[in-house]
Amino acid sequence: MKRVLLAKFLLWTGFAASYAVGSTESIDRRAVQDSNQKTAIPSRDGLRFVIDGHADYFAGSNSYWIPFLKSNSDVDMVMSHLKQSGLKVLRVWGFNDVNEIPTDGRVWFHHIQNGASVINEGADGLQRLDYVVKSAEAHNVKLIVNFVNNWGDYGGIAAYNTAFGGNATSWYTDKASQKSYRDYIKAVISRYKGSSAIFAWELANEPRCRGCDTSVIYNWAKSTSAFIKSLEPARMVCIGDEGMGLTTQSDGSYPFTYYEGVDFEKNLQIPTIDFGTLHLYPSQWSEQDPWGNLWIKAHGAACVKAGKPCLLEEYGSLALAASEASWQQTALKSKGIAGDTFWQYGDNLSSGPSPNDGYTVYRGTANYTILVTDHVKDVKKLNSH
Ligand SMILES: *[C@@H]1O[C@H](CO)[C@@H](O)[C@H](O)[C@H]1NC(C)=O
Ligand SMILES: *[C@@H]1O[C@H](CO)[C@@H](O)[C@H](O)[C@H]1NC(C)=O
Ligand SMILES: *[C@@H]1O[C@H](CO)[C@@H](O)[C@H](O)[C@H]1NC(C)=O
């Protein structure tokens, strides 16, 4: 199997962006592989994730923007590049909440205004996410799809507050907001039930409830994840939080505290939460980059205690390669850490370079070689042991 895949990578590399397959034999093999994948829903086994029957460590990335692209060929290009690079898991934004319907043709998914919600199933709506899922299926890339942003980008909790009242902390218990959020979740899940391309459903991007008792987020995560499992029991579910609030190996610094209303270890006990997530941005948390190694090890240990895998789901340093490569090494060595998805993947789209927030690692650059090519080699080495 591995040799077949390698041969295909070489074939694809040879034909640049084209992923048309040259021989009947390859087409047949791909068809067999594809039909097997239809039934293979990613899962977990002990402290590992399982993809296509392999309980391995998985490397991947984030590209929040891919569901908002209007060009199918851009989506296919990114997916084929991810596949060529050996990046198996891609985290994308499954939300795009607006208070006003855009008039410039921009993609939007969920219009919320004056207490009412409309889900956009049109060509500039969830059909864009449909294409991402379809392309991921074709390229055997596994998606983490989340349902709301804690931050204001693409709507988020602030957009719900505008439509339904309340504020950033009352949102978690606000009846009207939660009903609209759940209706949206149900609409998205119903489109991709049983798809081999979904790695996990994720409650939110970086939920926080500053100054709240940690029971607020705990109760919300517990009931929302149970709701999702009722819609699709076999699918993994995660929270999408930054991993804040833990006592294991705590040095007492801000991210380890409950200041943002998150208790990582308590939340991981929720039976309908399959794995823990952690994010890592020392420069935004008044820490130095080497501190990131402690953060990773602490979560690995907490995940071992809980008997569930941890995903280093976002990490970014403005020094890019130098710091991030050392975090990758730590992740590979830490029991309990089962995968990592760096923030964020960059590529050349037909419209120009994909978004750059200072943390983007563009394909084909020297940083990409270090953080992707070399890392994927290390991952393969680890998995072959
Ligand atoms: C948010 O709303 C709640 C409930 O009405 C209130 O108790 C809290 O003080 C508000 N928080 C802020 C920051 O306004
Ligand atoms: C991306 O496009 C730029 C400008 O056209 C080009 O210089 C660069 O080599 C391209 N990078 C890759 C990885 O294709
Ligand atoms: C990686 O990116 C950083 C930040 O943009 C840059 O300073 C550094 O030179 C790059 N390193 C390599 C090896 O390309």
Automatic annotation (TrEMBL):
Enzyme Commission (EC) number: 3.2.1.78
Any Gene Ontology CC annotation: extracellular region
GO MF entries: mannan endo-1,4-beta-mannosidase activity
Keywords, sorted A to Z: Carbohydrate metabolism, Glycosidase, Hydrolase, Secreted, Signal
Transmembrane region(s): none
GO annotation terms (biological process): mannan catabolic process
Reaction(s) this enzyme catalyzes, per UniProt: Random hydrolysis of (1->4)-beta-D-mannosidic linkages in mannans, galactomannans and glucomannans
Annotated signal sequence range: 1-20
Assigned protein family: Belongs to the glycosyl hydrolase 5 (cellulase A) family.
UniProt-recorded name of the protein: mannan endo-1,4-beta-mannosidase
Organism encoding this protein: Penicillium subrubescens
